[in-house]
Amino acid sequence: MTDHQWLELAAPYALGALDHEERIRFEAHLADCATCRAEVQACREVGGLLAYAAPAATPPGALRERVLRAARQVRPIGARRGPVLPWLAAAASIVLALLAGNAYRQERAAREQASRARAAVQDSLGERDSLIATLLSPDATTAALAATGQAPSARLFWSPTRHRVVMAVYRLPPAPAGRTYQLWAIAKGKPVSLGIFNTQPDGRLTAVMDVPPDLAFQVTAVTEEPAGGSPQPTQQPFLIGKVVGD
Amino acid sequence: MGAPATADYVLIERMARGDERALGELYDRHGGLVYSLALAIVGERADADEVVADALAQAWRTAQDFDPGRGSVGAWLTTITRTRALDLLRARGRRARALTRAALEDGEGLAAPIAAAGDAPDREVERQDTRRLVARSLAELSEPQRRIIELAYFGGLTQTEIAAELQEPLGTVKTRMRAGLEKLRSSLLPRLSRGES
Questions:
Q1: Positive or negative CA dihedral for A41, A43, A44, A48?
Q2: Which of B17, B45, B110 is the closest to A54 by Cβ?
């Protein structure tokens, strides 16, 4: 397919109107193509406004109570039972399905997958005590970076007092020759490099990186850069996540 | 942007911490929009109730997953609601209301009644602008373009399914969908660039 032909799939993809196989192929392409990802994002915003085209209807008065009653039966994911690792109890976590784009009807599947990934990461971390021992701090915060389907995902653990992050990456093929991945902390809207990394042939990596002292950041992102890394990102990030700590 | 939209995000943060009142407030603000959307898809009020209750329960459960960088709270809620509504139809083996309408009606799309909708529920003063703009933008599309986009969004159909439904060549459907969305994009640009949250 030419670049142009790929780009033409962005609108139907954003509307959830691609057939299954076409969608799978396009999602694979999205992982590599920042242009198409941006196009999908733009189309999704247009699509989102279509909800306003629904004829205005007034919900029945009793619905409000029904909504609240339903909510009382479940607790928010972040407020649920104690996690596997005690120190994670202090660290609210968030999983984002992001820039790789995602058809509407996949939304729920993506969330469920993210929940499973979260549990899997917690389990695998239990076996990596030696690596994360340095990070077993009460103040540790964590961010999960995720995309959908078989797209790559990553999870970040950050201890501000130890000025370190541990990053666990899954399903990310090694960067091509002459390229590398780079992790960024977005502080006050400005990307600050936390370091470069590459994955194993199996698409995994666990890495420890130093964080500049006093750097406070809310968002982390991963881009692909020329070997050696870049002072500032040269591409749109393909993974992005928000740090949440309580 | 502006104060109310900022507060939207704060509501989600409070929900993530288990604050039930925040959920009530979220409902007060967006209940009208998501209910209208659900009803437009499922066509029956009892089903729309169920969809909205499910959708807001999901929002409550997954409030932590909300990322303000990705879009507005309203867009997040409508995405959840649309997915839920289409799921409910599929589970019951029913056709979306948009499909029935498309089969029955000529010319009049879903957008048609909007201009007349005056009895706005909550926060409609603010929403009316967006509603009008969206309705106007849809009205500017050619009738086939509008129908195709409505079948995709409100009917949950793929391009292939739309082609079968309308008995049009697939290539034509693809071209019209793309052109229609492109046109919507340019007419909605003022609304998009302003953002909502």
A1: positive
A2: B110
Report for A121-130, A132-141, A222-231: range of highest mean pLDDT? A222-231
Domain boundaries, position B161: 95-197
- The pLDDT value recorded for residue A200 is 82
Mean pLDDT value of segment A120-139 = 43
Count how many pairs of residues, chain A against chain B, have C-beta atoms within 8 Å: 228
Cβ of B49 within 8 Å of Cβ of A60? The answer is yes
CATH number at residue B51: 1.10.1740.10
Q: Express each pLDDT in A22-66 by its tens digit.
A: 988 888 888 778 888 888 888 888 888 999 999 889 999 999 999
φ, ψ at A224 (rounded to 5°): -100, 130
Whether residue B36 and residue A15 make contact (CB cut-off 8 A), yes or no, is no
* Residue A109 Ramachandran class (φ > 0 left, ψ -120 to 50 alpha, else beta): alpha
Residues of B in contact with A80 (CB under 8 A): none
**Domains contained in chain B, number:** 2
Q: Do A49 and B134 touch (CB under 8 A)?
A: yes
- Same domain, residue pair B83 and B126: no
pLDDT at B117: 42
Contact check, Cβ <8 Å, B158/A17: yes
* Residue contact A18–B159, C-beta within 8 A: yes
Choose among A173, A244, A230, A161: nearest CA to A203. A173
Domain encompassing residue A184: 84-242
CB B102 within 8 A of CB B150: yes
The pLDDT assigned to B4 comes to: 46
A19 vs B39, B48, B158: nearest CB: B158
Torsion over CA: A52, A53, A56, A59 (sign): negative
- What gap in Å lies between CA A238 and CA A218, rounded to an integer? 17
Of B16, B52, B182, the CB nearest to A59: B52
Q: Would you give the DSSP letter of residue B65?
A: G
